[in-house]
Amino acid sequence: MKKSENLQFIDTISTYILKKWVQLFLIASIALYSLATLGDIVNNLLRNKLGFIQILEQNILNSSLFLENVLPVSCLLASLFLLNNLKQHSELIAILASGYSLLRMALVCLTFGVIVSFGQFLNVGFWKPYLESQKKLWSPQNEKNNNVATISQNKIWIKHKSYFGHYQVFDHIHNRMIAPNLFFYNDQFKPVKFVQAQSAQYQGDNSWVFINVKVIDNLEKNQFPLVTKVEKLILPLFENPRTISEFEADLKSLHVINLYRFLNHIKDTGINLIPYYLQVYGTLSQAILCLIFTIFPFAFPMGVSSRHESTGKALLYGLIVSIGFLGLNVAMVNLMLGFKIPPAFSILAFPVTSLVFLYQKLHPKVTL
């Protein structure tokens, strides 16, 4: 009977703590998101001089970026304000004296923190790429171009009024297409020839040198196509490295799963794919960051026995922790990449290690 009462008491405290944490999280996230939105509106009014509809569109397009920064900091502030609020009302001392540990308190808050973390994963991995795909459609200032490019079936497809085709990936260091395949057609939109090559090197003035080429010609004639193989072939294309860079910005519009599949498909081409792998694993890193910031204040609480801790001190503490951790995380990633450590380990090692360390740090804090 006594054990049952103890369990009921623990459940009551856990529910009370979780409700408080969720309320504080919502307050912090709404306040921070509103501040970010207000700053963006002022910037668009004063510097970009946009109209009301355009400002509204920009706010929607930037919503993922706002959430990416707001959610982890809101988790940190919610935990800080929870402890601060419990201390001010002498509740924290009573809770800890009853045998309820900071570890249990952190794990209770972490139940909702996991939901926030999953939301961050969806935001960075799916919502952000979707908004990237909408930017060209929503921005009237973008110049219209006869060239069209899209990413499908793990290839980058290009189209112009005289040809269409695809290539596997573009080497920006050497200005070279890898594995181009192009169909050329005439004014009646009938196919004329098909060109397949190992690579295509940009020479300037929209001139490209195709290397190790197979050409299937006379496709428009009522005769068997002519197949020839040449070492080099110079062809004019309307694409150039600048427009291809714009096309490949569409990589940012691939959600995290499709981007990972695409990168695995082209990883053997020898192209530097580290920035894109950082984008993939950065999605997981941002999700883990929400978990770290949720439990950090419990592992390093400010004056558990002190009753009078101002909200200003909690805000300052949160600011120092968030800036310090993010700065250290970036430094560690750059350091490990400098030593040629794989991107997955480089970007996930520090957050995962920090999460494990915080969990272990909480274990000695069993009771007051």
Structure description:
The chain has 368 residues and is α+β, with helices and mostly antiparallel strands. It contains 10 helices and 9 strands. It has helices at 2-48, 52-61, 63-88, 91-97, 102-138, 241-248, 256-266, 274-299, 311-338, 343-362; strands spanning 148-152, 155-160, 163-167, 169-171, 176-178, 181-185, 191-204, 207-217, 226-236. Strands 1, 2, 3, 4, 5, 6, 7, 8 and 9 form a 9-stranded antiparallel β-sheet that branches. β6 (181-185) and β7 form a beta hairpin. α1 (2-48) runs parallel beside α5. The chain is elongated and about 90 Å long. The chain starts with a helix and ends in a 6-residue tail after the last helix.
* Range of helix content: 55-70%
Main sheet attributes: strand count, strand direction, barrel closure: 9 strands, antiparallel
Enumerate the spans where pLDDT stays under 50 for 5 or more consecutive residues: 140-148
Class based on secondary structure composition and strand pairing: alpha+beta
Rounded average pLDDT:
83
Brief overview, please?
This protein has 368 residues and is an alpha+beta fold. It is built from 10 helices and 9 strands.
What are the salient characteristics of this protein?
single chain, 368 residues, alpha+beta, 10 helices
